[in-house]
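Reopening this one. Same input as before:
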Amino acid sequence: VTGLVCLELYKIVNGAKKLETYKNGFINLALPFFGFSEPIAAPSNKYYDKEFTLWDRFEVQGVQNGNEMTLKEFIDYFQNEHKLEITMLSQGVSMIYSFFMPKSKLDERLAMRMSEAVQKVSKKKIKSHVKALVLEICCNDEEGEDVEVPYVRYTIR
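Same output, byte for byte:
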């Protein structure tokens, strides 16, 4: 079994790019069964002219020059850089932002730093070893159509 893994590692080290060069191996010693197959590519999605798979993500540096982004700056970043209007933002099971929030709650959260908003909504401290937050976003494109986009890796440290 280890030999089969090593063969696949040699292919990676040699720089093999074609998916067809790799093999999946399944061995069941109780039957004796040895099965091999070719892996399939991850399904891809598209927004505007950008294609992505489940392995892709948005990388956002939350802290720049010692200051962390506010929720409003985060939303503006996606509007300006990716031409996406964020309609909902969540972290884990916590809804950080949504377009249908009451105005008083919305105004309060838009002014907060992202890490503060996450801590307030989730009612949990961000531990000191956490370097980045995984955020899920729902977005509209420029025509107002709902688009599927990758998750966001928001770096805080």
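So the earlier flakiness isn't reproducible anymore. For the record, The two ends are 40 Å apart (CA to CA).
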